[in-house]
Amino acid sequence: MIRNYIRTALRNLWKNRFMSFVNILGLSVGISAALVIWMIVHYDLSFDRFHQNGDRMYRIVSRLDFHQMIINTSGVPIPLIEALRSQSAGIEETAFLYQYSPNVKIGERKFGVLEKTTFAEPEYFNVVEYKWLYGSPVVLKNPLQAVLTEERAEQYFPGTPLAEVIGREVKYDDSISVSVAGIVQSLKGRTDFDFQEFVSMQTVRSDLGMQRMRGWDSWNNFNSSINVILRLRPGVAPEKIDAELAALIKPHTDKDSENKYSLQPLREIHLDPGIDFFGQRQANLPVLYKLGALVVFLLLLGGINFVNLQTAQAGERAKEIGIRKSLGSSKSSVVAQFLGESFVMATFAAIVSILLVPAILAAFRNFIPEGVTIAMFAEWQVFLFIPALVLVVGLLAGIYPAFVLARFQPVKVLKNQVYGINSKARLRQVLTVSQFSIALALIMATIIVSEQTKYVNRKDLGFAKDARLFVKAPGFRATTDKMKDQLEAVPEIEMISQAYSPPSFSGTSSTTMSFGSNGEIKDAMVEMKYIDEKYVPLYGIKIAAGRNLLPADTIHEVLVNESFAKAAGFKTPEDAVGQLIAINGKKHPVVGVVADFHTKGMQSRIPPLALSTDELRKTMLHVALRKDADVPRALDKIKAAWDASFPDDDFKPTFVDEALARFYDSEVKLRQLLGWATGIAIFISCLGLLGLAIYATRQRTKEIGIRKVLGASVGSIVVLFSKDVTKLVCIAAFIASGVAWYAMDKWLTGFAYHIHIPWWVFPSAAATALLLALATVAAQALKAAMVNPVQSLKSE
Predict the structure, then answer these.
(1) With contact defined as beta carbons under 8 Å apart, do 72 and 229 qualify?
(2) What phi-psi label fits residue 135: left (phi over 0), alpha (psi between -120 and 50 degrees) or beta?
(3) Residue 107 and residue 36: Cα distance in Å, rounded?
(4) SS3 readout for 733-788
(5) What's the whole-model pTM score?
(6) Which of 308, 317, 306, 315 lies closest to 342, judged by CA?
(7) What number is the average pLDDT over the span 746-757?
(8) What average pLDDT score do residues 542-551 get?
(9) Rg (CA), the chain
(10) Which of 25-29, 242-246, 401-405, 515-519: highest mean pLDDT?
(11) What's the rounded Cα separation, in Å, for the pair 223 and 206?
(12) Residue 427 has pLDDT above 80, yes or no
């Protein structure tokens, strides 16, 4: 029986080849998108699921109130760690990691700056369990000891037996020499703990310079390079530890502080892009939900095509159904026959989808995590998803047409008295409106995202970005002094500054400050930039009041921005000049107020900001080129100065405008993704419309012939067929406008500075969809109208 159903289904699909092709193509697009997105979702949700006692593992996160600006970070004050160990009975094990990206040298071999290195304590290996090949966690109790993974050991000492790697020397930043004391296997499974090299934390504890760089003894220093990982005792609620964290920190902060500290479950780390984890790629759960919604929309479009075309063919297949029923077929067997056709079609679509997956992965590589590859088909979750998807798609797409066709009465069918076939036109109209509503909403969303992207690229940031670049000195102690001296005489360079970061920067350095006419800012965490006297003129930052910092500043003068002065209660910027500001308890004079400039992307409001000098923080060299400079030649000279100062490191300059563009990577990717989705949606919708137009012209062949005999022109016949489509697209545009406005208004609230949705977006999108729809229908109508009426009216 089943074999007969399949054979009949294949025969019907071949008989209606074009419509079968339309259905399979529409379904395959939706299924392939669903398959790729399921691979992404499965990949991101499988991170760090393999740890023993993983349900008791947490990371401490901080919610800092930067005077009405909230910053979420994984950084915690280092003194808190020892306080937790000595005073919290609910914690079984506590360890902290301190990210390190050293310039590595072994003998005469230079490896450059290597990532995936961290300072670690022995306790880390008690929380996150590794398989030890040589050594044990105890080796990290001593300074200048390192533990490597197998992969890093092979990279450093290729071909050397692991046992002989123990005791070998590795040099960091030409200043720290460590001995390899242990080797571990990398963690098996998807994880964000993909470190390849662990240096003993005692190395930092024995180096005062390193400690000062990270505010080692300060309760008011937060840095995302430092993460605390812990494991609770069985039965201990994380809320209990949250309360203990607040109690431990409270004596060391202002009583009015709004800062909060809490535990984040290990399995949520990968799904929280708002809190960085050592620069790892992190998934965004809301984005995964939106991708899932996009899959549903694309599957709906393909399913709507199927329902539309199947019900449109009802008249042609009515006699087949009548004969089947008169020969004894039951309603259930007819339903089974048509569901069988649906499942066969969904199976063909799934096969096409699998063939499309490699091309999709290649085309969308910028959007897709590196770990998502065709090899994931070997994982049972992905493998089983394919037949499950075929089952769901086949059932949902085919069940309605099957029951509609199974209800036909054989006597009426064979007498050509089937009523209700044309009544399904109303359903097809509703489905067509649904298709175009989805497509139009995507068009409108794409335009709005594009306009917001243009806005953020054109907006005045409060500083100059053109022809400006910066380079970062490698290592902890490296300075740019020598390089700066060599570049002073380069004619292509207009100005040079030594500072810590450019005006807009992804990282945030903050410290505790007290300032204000009535103490409005008191022991508040405030963003800080460390600069020299050339920084402000180099970036064209305007001074609203007072003056710039002086050269060779030994008393550490301070500049504040307008937002800082306003938050401190001063009516004008001039009122803030001459006041004293307390930074970590030490008072410094405010000598000037700079105009507000954007320190982050347009997603964030300009925060209160202070700028001052610090010799240890001048690790970046900022260069402004002359307007008429030969840029390639200037870069060659800068590289020569770099090579002379840092011969072991690659020269990697960053232009300020390129760095700014990274703030909007997600928006650019969203625009591209919406563009692809819009194109697919329009394609599927027009494909379905084309199929309906073909059936409509076939059913109205005699009507067209009679109209032509009575004098109707080709143009009037085309207009006749186009009127219905115009009406449907206009209804879809009305629905889509409301949906798109609501969704994009919500999206724009994620930007502190954004556009107002332009009114012209909605009619423009509607006009675009209408032109495509009319072109699709008019082509078929024109073809039918050009047929000789004699051929149209002759009897079968």
Answers:
(1) no
(2) left
(3) 46
(4) HHHHHHHHHHHHHHHHCCCCCCCCCCCCHHHHHHHHHHHHHHHHHHHHHHHHHCCC
(5) 0.71
(6) 306
(7) 87
(8) 91
(9) 34
(10) 242-246
(11) 20
(12) no
Rounded Cα distance, 200 and 202, in Å: 5
Q: Is the pLDDT of residue 355 over 60?
A: yes
Q: Measure the CA–CA gap between 636 and 641, rounded to whole angstroms.
A: 9
Instruction: Please state, in angstroms and rounded to a whole number, the distance separating the CA atoms of residues 151 and 185.
Output: 8
Cβ(144)–Cβ(176) under 8 Å?
A: yes
**DSSP strand pairing (609-612 vs 654-655):** unpaired
- 701 HSE (CA, 13 A, CB side): 13
Weakest mean pLDDT among 499-503, 524-528, 569-573, 687-691: 687-691
For 743, the token pair is 């969704």
Task: Give the contacts of 368 (CB within 8 A, at least 6 positions apart).
Answer: 36, 40, 361
Q: Does residue 255 or residue 379 have the better pLDDT?
A: 379
The two three-digit tokens of residue 224, written as one number:
């995302």
Contact 28, 680 (CB under 8 A): no
Mean pLDDT over 665-681 rounds to 74
User: CA angle, corner 24, sides to 351 and 772, nearest 5?
Assistant: 135
| pLDDT score for 592 | 93
- In percent, the amount of the chain with pLDDT more than 70 equals 81
Sign of the C-alpha dihedral computed for residues 251, 253, 259 and 265 taken in this order: negative
Which one-letter amino acid corresponds to residue 318? A
pLDDT at position 417? 47
Distance CA 524, CA 257 (A): 7
Q: What gap in Å lies between CA 764 and CA 559, rounded to an integer? A: 48
Q: Which residues contact 642 (CB under 8 A, 6 or more apart)?
A: 471, 483, 649, 651
Amino acid 596: pLDDT? 92
pLDDT interval class at 214 (50, 70, 90): low
Which region holds residue 466: left if phi is over 0, alpha if psi is between -120 and 50, else beta?
A: beta
C-alpha span between 43 and 47 (Å, rounded): 7
Spatial separation of the C-alpha atoms in residues 132 and 602, rounded to whole Å:
47
* Helical residues (DSSP H) of 407-423, grouped into ranges: 410-414
Contacts of 275 (CB under 8 A, 6+ apart): 61, 72, 73, 74, 224, 264, 269
Please enumerate in sequence order all residues whose Cβ is within 8 A of that of 503, keeping only pairs 6 or more positions apart, or say none: 461, 462, 463, 529, 539, 541, 597, 598, 599, 656
Looking at this protein, which amino acid is placed at residue 21? F
Question: Among candidates 366, 367, 363, 383, which has minimal Cα distance to 375?
Answer: 383
Length of the chain in residues, anyone? 796
- As given in the structure block, the two tokens for residue 348 are 């063909």
Residue 35 has a pLDDT of 85
For 568-602, give the DSSP string.
TT-SSHHHHTT-EEEETTEEEEEEEEEPP--SS-T
Q: How confident is residue 157, by pLDDT bands cut at 50, 70 and 90?
A: very high
Least confident range from 83-92, 102-111, 219-228, 457-466: namely 219-228
pLDDT of residue 735: 92
Q: What is the pLDDT of residue 548?
A: 92
Beta-carbon neighbour count of residue 419 at 10 Å?
Answer: 9
pLDDT reported for residue 68? 58
DSSP 691-748: HHHHHHHHHTHHHHHHHHHTT--HHHHHHHHHHHHHHHHHHHHHHHHHHHHHHHHHHH
The answer to whether the beta carbons of residues 259 and 81 sit under 8 Å apart is no
Low-confidence winner among 43-52, 433-442, 621-630 (lowest mean pLDDT): 433-442
- Report the pLDDT averaged over residues 560-579: 89
Which tokens in the block code for residue 485?
């001296």
Phi, psi at residue 13, to the nearest 5°?
-65, -40
- Using DSSP's 3-state secondary structure scheme, residue 648 falls into coil
